[in-house]
């Protein structure tokens, strides 16, 4: 057949993928065609709207660099990242809940001694984070690399700053759990912050009268051997945006009460320089495998 009505066209495009050698790729492509065609039919998409969409996606691609991923941001604000997370983590079996990776995981986290102030060069209210990694039976896991990263008290990640290449990391580190599965560090209390609004995705958020804010949080990537890599955040209870995260990433279990303290020493016995905050949170990981995310700018292996 050379001429198709709109439903015949969908069937013809689906059939055109029939000989795809990889069965999963074939399934994904055929389902994508079905969903895209349904969307066009349901909305009676006009040529102007189609052109706009192509231009939007082009600008999204053009905004990407080695350390900025505008497509991840698009997936995040459309709730796709959290949906992929949900369908892949249906049974937690007591393991800590997961959430989005976000665009500010840049890899190359430096192994850092416990207790280090990872934000020593930054202004802000001081915070001590104490944590532990266990398996599902509560047994401590030693020697586990845990990457942490968070925004400063003005809402920016180190990688968003012009001097990142010369100054290096701040509020970003890797700890290795001790024999009790523990790790701990000093930092500053992060604040809620807007996703980048200087690109097409942020513009879409403001033009649609959504707010661009994420509630304050610290990111954790716990990568224990023989266990599923855990990508998550711990959110700070009481944040104004806890119920309206622009990327839909909050889960109740991930909200921590961060205590205000005025003790003269922090939990590692070293002096505090005035009032401070204490975040306490334990991570439980599930047996399994899987790859931890590749840092931005590194090549993902091609599928055979
Ligand atoms: C983040 O938490 O770093 C983040 C996640 C999704 C979109 C933007 C930022
Ligand atoms: Fe973040």
Question: Would you write up a description of this structure?
Answer:
With about 300 residues, the protein is of the alpha+beta class. About 25% of the residues lie in helices and about 20% in strands. It has seven helices and eleven strands. The strands form three sheets. A five-stranded mixed sheet has the order 3-2-7-8-9, with no helix packed on it. A four-stranded mixed sheet has the order 4-1-11-10, with no helix packed on it. α1 (about 5-15) runs antiparallel to α2 (about 25-45). It is globular. The protein starts with 5 loop residues before the first helix and ends in a 20-residue tail after the last strand. Fe (iii) ion binds next to β7.
Give the strand content.
15-25%
Order of helices and strands: HHHHHEEHEEEHEEEEEE
The total count of helices amounts to 7
- The total strand number stands at 11
Strand order of the largest sheet: 3-2-7-8-9
Helix amount? 25-40%
Low-pLDDT runs of 5+ residues are: 299-304
Gap between N and C termini? 33 Å
Q: Biggest β-sheet, characterized?
A: 5 strands, mixed
Shape: globular
**Mean model confidence by pLDDT:** 92
Radius of gyration: 22 Å
* Ligands (ions, cofactors included): benzoic acid, fe (iii) ion
- The class by helix and strand makeup works out as alpha+beta
